[in-house]
Amino acid sequence: MKSIGYYLKSTTLSLLLFTESYFLLTLIIDFVKAQNFLSFNLGYSIETILVMLLTIYTFALSIGGWGKWEQYLIAGFPVCIAIFISLFKFNANYAILAAASSFLILVYDMRKTTLLKSLLIKFDPKMVLRFSTKGLLFIFSIVGGAIVFIYPADFRNQINVGRQIAEITEEPVKKAVQSKLEEQTGQYDPATMAVMEEELRKIGIYDKSSAKALDLNMKDLIEKQVNNSVEPYKNLIPFVIALYTFGLLQLYATVAYVLYISTIDVIFWFAKYLKFFKVNKIPVEQEQLTF
Hints:
The radius of gyration is 28 Å and the shape is elongated. Helix 3 packs antiparallel against helix 4 and helix 4 packs antiparallel against helix 6. 74% of the residues lie in helices and 3% in strands. It folds into 2 domains: 195 residues, no CATH class; 72 residues, no CATH class. The protein is mainly α. The relative contact order is 0.12. It has 11 helices and 2 strands. About 2% of the residues have low confidence.
């Protein structure tokens, strides 16, 4: 018979794990919805990494209730329910598939963790939980990539790849071109300038803001060239964005995991100190192989 403390701690951790998982998935959905895939948002990156870190902290602390089939309800079920609820509003079939697949991955990783836990004489959270924590972060990355496919938006037409690249490259390219033009035209010989202006007008990138200045609308030029280049491959854009989203989330997960490895011993020390865990010592026999 389990104690009241067991049920109270298990329920609290399960609810907390569900909340953190749902919030993390909401952040991922907001990232896909914003469609600013080529821009770097430091605030969003820090927030996502911190939520990932808190989620695997909670997942790790739930190991106090592992050992029998209940462990999958305590730690695995809340994550899968959060995945199902987050994806259900987009596609019910995908939501069921993602939740079921995630549950199977978690069961497999948690089973390995339980077996490793039983083999060690002294519990080491870094070693014991490395399979399940990495597996959990991997699941969130996979789901993030899947959201790109089920999100109700046609990324092929809504995302202006040329414009986003042009915003990044406009200034350095424009400076290089204008510097080269100055070298070649000297003091802007009128006859030469007239020919250049006419050619630039034909391709639609000339804007004469004053009688003495040649202003190239480099952003439009880059946008046109890039969009013309990617036009035959527009059908591949969702796949590219999905891979990019997966890779970015894996990068965040790597940072979160490094922080986790660096601090989890302290977290478990405090948990033992505060009597969150009960430390039971049992006699064991160790098998050793020698020649």
